[in-house]
Amino acid sequence: MERIKSFFQSLKIGTKLSFGIVSMIVLVMAVLLTTIINSYRENLIANSQDLMIASIKNVGQSTEADILATAQMVRTTAISQASGLFGDREGTIEQIKSGMEAFPGCFGIAINYEPDADGQDEAYRGDTVHTIDGRFLPFYHWKDGLKREEMVPSKSIQTAKGWYQVPKKNALEMLRGRNVTDLMYYSDVYLTRGVPTVSIVHPIIRDREFKGVVSVDMSMINAQADLKRLKPYATALPFLVGEKGTILAGELFGQAKVGSSVYKEPGYSDAFFRFFKEHKGGMLEEKRASDGKEIYYVFSLLPTTGMVVGLAVEKEEIIAPINALIAKISVGAVVALILCLAVVWLVARRIVVRPVNNIMSLFSEIGIGNFDARAEVMSRDELGIMAESLNAMLDNTLSLIQSREERDAIQGSVMKLLTEISGLTEGDLTVRAEVTEDMTGAIADSFNLMAEQIGQVVREVKAAAGRVNDTSGEVHESTEKLAQTSTLQAEQIASAIADIRGMADAIRQVAERAVHSASVSEQSTASAREGADAVSKTNASMSAIRENVQETARAIKRLGESSQEIGNIVQIIGDIADRTSILALNASIQAAMAGDAGRGFAVVAEEVQRLAERSTNSTKQIDTLVKNIQGEITEAGASMDASIQRVVEGSKRADDAHAKLEEIREVSGELAELIGGISRTSEDQARESEKITQSMEAIGTISSDTSEASLATAARMDEMEETALAMISSIAAFKVDAV
């Protein structure tokens, strides 16, 4: 350390000044170059990471939008079932066909009623579009549009877990007044023919009763295709993992691992698995166990289904081109720095070192007695003025030197002057030469004045450097706070932009689904109107039947009255037969009393007796028949009265059904108007959301620019502070009097 100090003190003042200037420039350039390169490198890496995250989020948002749009279709179908299409089985099948055409990505759409929920199971028993017990279960495949041949028995529906029982449980909980946030049910993602699939189910609730469910098996073939197309880098490996860790698609684990659990994959860290267990998005950097390469993993969560979309990229692919570019920039910067140093060194030598050496050479010549030597005037600054003053002094001195003694005295004075000012060459600006009355006094006075002026300049430079250091520190703190605030603002604005963009997409989907819902509602209104007309015709037919039944009842009543009259007549005939029998008996008695004369009359009396008995028997038979007829007439009358009552009740029910259908038609009309209003409002909101998104993006750009400018300013303040410290350190070589 002492050697270095001694070496530094032995250097000439010109060399010290050149070294100080060059060192300060090298320090500033090195700090500036390092800051710029590091900042540029970090920005390039951040841009690459943002590209990966944006690519994953685009796939996730697109998949999430498809799921929500399909869920809206399921909800609309369930509402139409609950209002107008419930029980209209053929109309429901047509509705399902329309849904399949509108959503070709679905594997199938199914509507499942509770057993005999619409009272038509018996009528449809054995139909190919229903279960074997008449249960309604239309189901269409997405591939060929044909109805399913193997129907699910009702018992398996009743015992099914998940897709049927969970929505049913939620619906019953809601009907009991429990707090149910959403009736929509999303199953765990599973594989169907190698394609990730999710079942979306919504219950059918009609008149505050659970009637069945609407379910859709939605394929994620679009997400699978998006993953295959996702190739922002050559080493990029996308993947799709379910909520419970099931590998669904992607190249990271390989096609052979599709369907297995990600937790069984060897070579991954706990942090890697934690992303799937905690269901959160983000970025992870770690080494791959198979080859030891650094890998960037990016994750994006799909909140509706709990799936995780991810992307793995080798860090080397991202860093290598950045390092190559930075290496080129560094080489160019070093070459520029060397050229700059060479120029600065040459300029410093020409402006400072050469004039100082010129003056010192003059003093050396004077020291050996050469008073003919003169200093070369190289500039018009203080050193140039000093050289002119020395030349003038030497001119005056030569005219005054008369003898050798005078020259010796002058030489001694000059040597003394050189000894006194030797500390100045080492940077000690506090030394002063003794001002004498001889000819060297003017030189000493000039040197003292020069040292005082240079000392004043050094003190001012020190003070200025100190103020610059303090000010740069304060500005650095303020700039850092501004940069932090701007960065936070930019992040918040970026998050708001993403939320607004998602909201705009959701609003656009709602608008599209609202248009479809309006069409469905109009169909429901038309169906309700046709149903009301049919019920009106049915009611008219029931009225005609009631009149015919009443007329038949009156005829039966008249028939009963006629049979009553027949009974009266039969009773009279019976009385006549009894009296005839008595008369025949009396006649027989009288004939017997008459003897032979009355024998012929006795024969006639016997015949009359037999006729009377036969009449009595016939009368009894007729009476029995009449009574049977009267009983049957009574039963027929009661049956007709019951039929009339049922016809009346049927008419009332038909009237009630007509009123309900009218209410359904009115509600469907109002629903169509509301949905139309929702569609128009959603379109307006979508346009406004686009404007808001554009405004927020502009604000985000401004905030990003402000943040970058603040960071750049903070970096410049750091450099300025370091430059001021370096300047203070360089000037510290000069010793001056305290102020």
Automatic annotation (TrEMBL):
Per its UniProt record, what Gene3D superfamilies does this chain match? 6.10.340.10, Methyl-accepting chemotaxis protein, PAS domain
Ranges where the HAMP domain occurs:
350-402, 408-459
> What's a single GO BP term from this record?
chemotaxis
Q: What residues form the membrane-spanning segments?
A: 21-40, 295-313, 325-348
Report the GO terms under cellular component. Answer: membrane
Q: Where in the cell is it found?
A: Membrane
Out of the domains of life, which is the source?
Answer: Bacteria
Q: Its topology with respect to the membrane?
A: Multi-pass membrane protein
GO MF: transmembrane signaling receptor activity
The Methyl-accepting transducer domain extends over 464-700
Instruction: Specify one Pfam family.
Output: HAMP
**Keyword annotations from UniProtKB, A to Z:** Membrane, Transducer, Transmembrane, Transmembrane helix
Q: Tell me where it mainly resides.
A: membrane
Name the family.
Belongs to the methyl-accepting chemotaxis (MCP) protein family.
| Protein name in the entry | Methyl-accepting chemotaxis protein (Mcp) signalling domain
Q: What organism is the protein native to?
A: Desulfoluna butyratoxydans
